[in-house]
Amino acid sequence: MSCANLGKSTIVGVWAKAETTCGTFVMPAATDVILPTGFPAVNQEFPTTDGLEISESLDITEQFQSAAQPVSFSLPMYVRVPAAASLGNAIQGDVVFQSLLGSGVAGGTVSAAVATTWTVGQTTSLGFDTLAGGWLPDVGVITVGTEKILYRGITWASSTAGSFDNVERAYAGTTAAEQADTTAFTLTSRYFRLDTDSPAFSTVVRTDHTVYYITGCAANSATVGITNEGGLQWSFDCQALSFEWAGKSTLAAQAASGQADVVVPDAKLYSVGAFVKNTTKNKDNTDGYEITAINYSTNTLTLETNLDTNWEIGDIVEGYVPGSTSVANTIENRYTSVYIDATSTTLQNTDLTVSCPKQFISDEVGNTYPTAWVEDQRSITGTMTLYARAADTKYLYDNTQRTEKVVHMLFGDTDGESMAIAMRRTKLTNPTSSENGPTINMALNLTALGKIDTTTSEVGENSIDVVTI
């Protein structure tokens, strides 16, 4: 037995699942697990205001509690993608990516057809038409027949036709073949596409002996730090409407089979809406016993479902969490390729911030907790740092001319188990030189912009594409 009953910051579990109705909790499944790379601190502030009364004392005699602010929690994670054979399926924390960016399009959803036969050795200007089922990202993997093809860049002719550029044929171990005119193909990549609406999700967070059940969650921003070390990681900052909690204690009185009330030493360790299990008896009612009422005077928890066996004094009653079935493959940062206007570029490091904030409604009179949130204007910025080479002086000119660049970042060394970020309209500004030992560094500010395009009938929502490749 431990010397002290202290919470251990390394015993952590996180699960996240999309909500059908924002603010209505949905219990995640084992496949919704997230392995965080840092402590997911969960907090919700109830601001207070000191009273204004003055008296014959210097003491403050009253304090008033205001409505709650949104729940805040961090969620850093490695990018974990399924095996290449399952390219296009969900990745770790899939719903969190969707909440940040707007939507997630499964592989096989978007289709088009070959326009003019693609010869076996053709690696550029692969024409297509009859696009259906959605949109194509600027970087992606398509499957035509038995061949997979990676492309970097699209030249659009209309909203349903164009051509692929910078193509890698016979991708992911497939065999290149002539692809005849009108042959159908699909986008195989999983595509996180920007949208003006984004899904809410429920999150279960276990921090040792406390479990939080968080509703109405939204990802507001994420940072991506790219170096030559470690794994590819996205660090999300999230907010939510409210949470419930369940602690850990032992049963204070026997609870007979068929009843719904259980007595614990201190009912304040639990809240209505939380889910518990009997760890001693291995009884969890599949997804936990939901607490529907609490009598704090008698320390009695009323459960939604009657017990199907006797619970005995001393049985451990604690918060329910799902099992864990994690997505298999991580991506090493050292396998990163960056292309600026299709030209391979060597960088020292890059810091990218994808901010898609949500404004929480917490100032309506009569409500204790925030009642909703709404998407606000996004911002995609970063800094690209490189060792200054002779050819890099050109960035001084680009800065004066406000030149726009196409930036593609590809992460991973295994076909079908990698990720790409594409920014079609990028400003690289204010090149700043600095000393770095015997070398010179150049730092470039990066801003990704949306594009209103009459050729494709786009009205924005295209400043960044995030895809699996």
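[next item in queue]
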Amino acid sequence: MPQSTHASPYLPPQTTKPQRREGASRLMRDRDLVAEARVMAIGVWTRIFGLLAIVGAAWLLALSTYPSRAAVVLGPVIVAGAWGVLLGSHLFDLRPWARWGFLATAVLNLLLLGAQVASAPVTANLVGAALGGGWCVAQLWALFGASGSYVFSPGYGRARSEDRRSVDYYGSVFFVVPAVCTVLVLLSVAVRVTT
């Protein structure tokens, strides 16, 4: 009777799995695609809101009957929009200085939200400040939490450049929530303009 090559004739033959190269598996472990998606989504929306601020301020400046007076008010809005575009572009590329710039901008934003509530503590301002402040804190968590800090670490850029997997940032909560809010705001503006 011929001898079987497996341990038992009743078990299916065992196959050996192909071994991965150690370098490829190390890269798979070294990247945090979820944290990258969060940071990249924050960068995209920071850039979009910066562009919207620039375009909106330039449009209002063009419509103004007193352009010199309007420039005093809208000039800082254009500068803030340009800062948002610059900051968003560098957050998208995972530049470490950009998260510190975002921290400074977020602290200023939280102070402005607090001043808005203190000046007129009506329900709409309270709800808006709570939502805006909560979203700002969530973004800071994404940038400065453990996974966010890891994405900005010095060795991470090397692992990212060696691993060519793409990051689906548009599926991140940090992309979807601002997208839905922007669509809702644009719809409400369109309804108000048409009525």
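[queue empty]
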